[in-house]
C-alpha cells in the first residue's frame, strides 16, 4: 500500500452535531477510562510500596519490578496491533479490563495468606502490563469507530484531559488510600476501577463491525511487517514517529537527571520536587483544553509543530533556574509549558493517525508508533546517568534541552508544519 493510499482512509460515521458532551457512547468510554486511569495511578504507587514495606525488597528487586511493568510494551505491542486489526476492539478492551482486575486481586489475596513474594509481585506486574499494552493499542484503534473524523480532536482532547487529571490527583489519592488501607488493600481500588470501566464499555450501544476477512489469511509476522512497512513508507507518519522517538529519548534523560538536580543542586526537597513535577500534569490539562482550538486555527501540522516547540524550548528553563524561591517559580513554569506543549502534540499526532489510516491497519500502525517511540526510553535512562556523571546535573540538563530544541527546529522545517 502506498503512502498516498494510506492518507485517504475510509470516511468515519457521522458525528453528533452538538459535540461529544451529548454523545452517550463516548461519555461511557470517557467516564470508564477516567476512573480506570485514577485506579492505575494508585497501583503504580502501591506495587513498589508493597515490595518495600511488606517484602523488604532490595534496590535490585525494585528495579526488577519496574522492568516487569514496562517490558511488555516491547514484548507484545506489535502482536497487540495485529490482534486489534483482526478482531472487534471493544471485546478486547473489556477483556483487558476484566483480566487486569482479576490479576491484581492476586496481590492482596497472597498478602493475606502470607504467600506474597517479590517474584509473584513481578509476575502480576508483567501479566498486567501485557493486558495494558493490548488495551492501549486497541483503545486508540477503537475511538475512530465510535466518533466521526471531525470529532477525533475533541475526543482525544477529553481523554488526554482525563489522563492529566489522573496524573495530578491519582498519586495523592493513592498515597491517602495506602496510608488508610495499606498498599495491598489499596490495589483493590484499582480492581474496582477496572470493573467499572468494563461495565461502561458493555453499555455502549454502537455496533462495531467485524473486520473484513481478507483473502488468504497472512501470518502474524507478515501482518507486523505490513504495519511497519506502511508506517515507514509514509513520509508524514515517519517524520512524526522519528521526532517523537527523539523527544522520548531526551525527555527520559530529563526524568533521570532532574531529581538529582532539584535535590542536590537547587535543594528543593521532596515536597518541592513533587510540586514541580505535578505542574507538568496541570500544563497537560491546559494543553488538552486548548488543542482543538489550536488545531482549528492553525491546522493539524502547525498545531503539532507549535506543541513540540513549546515542550522542547520550555526545558531550557530548567538548567537556568537559580537556587531561590524564584528558581522554584522558573521550574514550575518550565514544567507547565512542557506539559501543555506535549499534550497538544500528542493529541494531534494520535488524531492524525486515526483520521488518515485505514481502519484495517490502524491497530498495527498505532502499535508500530508505540513500539518505536517507547523502545528508546531505556537508552535515555542510561544516557541520563552518563551525562550527569560526566557533566554534572545542571550541564547535563542544559545539553539535553539544547538537543530537544534542535529537534524541534528540524521538525519545524519538515512538511508536517504545512499540513492543514
UniProtKB/TrEMBL annotation:
Main location: membrane
Cited SUPFAM superfamilies: MFS general substrate transporter
Domain Major facilitator superfamily (MFS) profile: 236-420
Pfam families from the UniProt entry: MFS_1 (PF07690)
Subcellular location: Cell membrane
InterPro entries: MFS, MFS_dom, MFS_trans_sf
Keywords: Cell membrane, Membrane, Transmembrane, Transmembrane helix
Membrane topology: Multi-pass membrane protein
TM region(s), chain numbering: 67-84, 239-261, 273-291, 303-321, 327-347, 368-389, 395-414
UniProt protein name: MFS transporter
Organism this protein belongs to: Streptomyces lavendulocolor
Upper lineage: Bacteria, Bacillati, Actinomycetota, Actinomycetes, Kitasatosporales
